Amino acid sequence: MDTLLTYVLFGSLIVHLLLALVCLWRLWRGENVIDRLTAADLMTTLTLSMLLLIALILKDGIYIDVAIGLAALGYISTLAMAKYLADRQMF
User: Which of 34, 40, 46, 69 has its CA 20 to 30 A from that of 28?
Assistant: First the structure.
């Protein structure tokens, strides 16, 4: 049963990596700034999920701590960028 779970986790990690590559392409070739902001936010979410999958595969909790810090940083940066796009000023 443990090997089946490992295969499923590795398969999920590969799928997330492919989705991150598609998202990276959209971030690079987005038509406007809103598309790029959405792609950056999705890239943060995919990176979080990949870190959690790596934590489950390696059975190491440090990746969960890194994911929590990245989640906070991603949330704050998305809010700051959205405010900048709406008002054209940061503060």
Answer: 69
Asked if pLDDT for residue 2 goes beyond 90, the answer is no
The secondary structure of residue 1, as a DSSP letter, is -
CA–CA separation, 44 vs 67, rounded Å?
Answer: 10
E strand spans, the chain: none
The rounded distance, in Å, linking the Cα atoms of 11 and 56 is 13
Tokens of 48: 């979080």
- List the domain boundaries for the chain: 2-87
In the block, residue with structure tokens 């598309």: 35
Q: Sorting pLDDT into bands at 50, 70 and 90, what band is 90?
A: low
d(CA 75, CA 77): 6
